[in-house]
Write a structure and sequence with these properties.
273 residues, alpha/beta, Rossmann fold, six-stranded mixed sheet, two-stranded antiparallel sheet, 12 strands, 35% helix, transcription, WH-like_DNA-bd_sf, PRTase_dom
C-alpha cells in the first residue's frame, strides 16, 4: 500500500477509537509495513492533528505500548462555532415562557451536536471519565456526542422507572426552576460503583436537576469528575446550587416584553485556551 493511502486508512482507524490503546505491531501487520515506516506515519498524523487543533497522539512505552488518540480540540477550533451558536440563540423567535429558549432544532442537527460533543470531550479529556450521565430527554443527544469522543458509555437518569430496566435506585430532589420535589431514578446495572462520571445537560438555571444527578451518583459511590451544560442562564430568584461547571454559552438577558435576548460564549473556550 502506498504511504498516502496508508495514512488515510490509519487516520480513519485512529479517529474512530479515541482514548483506545493501539499497538504498533497491529499497524505493522495490518498494513504489511516496517515498524520504522509506521512510526514515521504516526509522527506525521500526530503533527497534523496538533496543527489543526483537533488533538494529538499519546505514545505509550513498553512491550504492551502503542499510541492513543486524545481528542483535545483547541479554543481556536471552536471559536467561530460558538459565536455562530450564540447568534442563533439570540434569535427572538426562540423565546419561550419563563425565560427559556427553544433549542430542540439545534439538538437535532447532527453536525452541531457532534461539534458540541468534541468541545466538551476536550474540556474533560484529562479527567479519566468512565461514563457520561444525563437526564432524559433533551440532554441525551449531547451526552452521546460527548461519550462518543471520550469513548465511554452513556448513563441516563429518568424521572420514572421503566419495567425493562430492572431494579433501580431513586432519589428526591428540588427542581431549581419550579421549586417542586421531583424524583430521579437510575437502574442499578447502568453504572459501576466508584465510577468517575461526567454530567452533561442542555440547560441550567439554578442547577437543581444537576444537583439531583449528583445526589443520585452518591448512591453509587460514584465521583463527579466534570459538569458540562450547553447553555447557562442566571435565575434572579434562585441561588445557583452548582458552581463548578463548564458552559458552552451564557444567556445574560432575556426579556419577554421587549423581545430581547443577550447571549455570549460560556467559560468552555477559556478552559481550552
Amino acid at each position: 500500500m502506498k504511504r498516502s493511502k496508508r495514512l488515510v486508512s490509519m487516520t480513519r482507524y485512529i479517529i474512530e477509537r479515541p482514548r483506545t490503546l493501539i499497538s504498533l505491531p497491529f499497524f505493522v501487520e495490518e498494513y504489511q509495513s516496517a515498524k520504522s515506516s509506521i512510526s514515521e506515519d504516526l509522527t506525521i498524523i500526530d503533527e497534523r492533528f496538533r496543527q489543526e487543533g483537533v488533538g494529538y497522539l499519546e505514545s505509550i512505552a513498553g512491550a504492551s505500548g502503542g499510541i492513543k488518540y486524545i481528542p483535545a480540540y483547541s479554543a481556536e477550533y471552536g471559536e467561530s462555532f460558538v459565536e455562530e451558536l450564540c447568534e442563533k440563540l439570540s434569535d427572538t423567535e426562540r423565546l419561550l415562557p419563563g425565560g427559556y429558549l427553544f433549542m430542540s432544532d439545534l439538538l437535532g442537527e447532527p453536525r452541531t451536536v457532534d461539534t458540541i460533543g468534541k468541545l466538551f470531550a476536550s474540556a474533560f479529556v484529562d479527567k479519566d471519565i468512565d461514563a457520561v450521565m444525563t437526564v432524559a430527554t433533551k440532554g441525551i443527544p449531547l451526552a452521546y456526542a460527548v461519550a462518543t469522543h471520550l469513548n465511554v458509555p452513556v448513563v441516563i437518569a429518568r424521572r420514572d422507572p421503566k419495567v425493562t430496566e430492572g431494579s433501580t435506585v431513586s432519589i428526591n430532589y428540588v427542581s431549581g426552576s419550579t421549586r417542586k420535589i421531583q424524583t430521579m431514578v437510575l437502574t442499578k446495572r447502568s453504572l459501576e460503583e466508584g465510577s468517575r462520571v461526567c454530567i452533561i445537560d442542555d440547560f441550567m438555571k439554578a442547577g437543581g436537576t444537576i444537583n439531583g444527578m449528583k445526589s443520585l451518583l452518591k448512591e453509587f459511590d460514584a465521583e463527579v469528575a466534570g459538569i458540562g451544560v450547553l447553555a447557562e442562564a442566571e435565575d434572579e430568584e434562585e441561588e445557583r446550587v452548582v458552581d463548578d461547571y463548564v458552559s458552552l454559552t451564557q444567556i445574560l438577558h432575556v426579556d419577554d416584553r421587549t423581545k430581547e435576548i443577550e447571549v455570549q460564549p460560556g467559560n468552555l473556550l477559556r478552559r481550552l485556551s
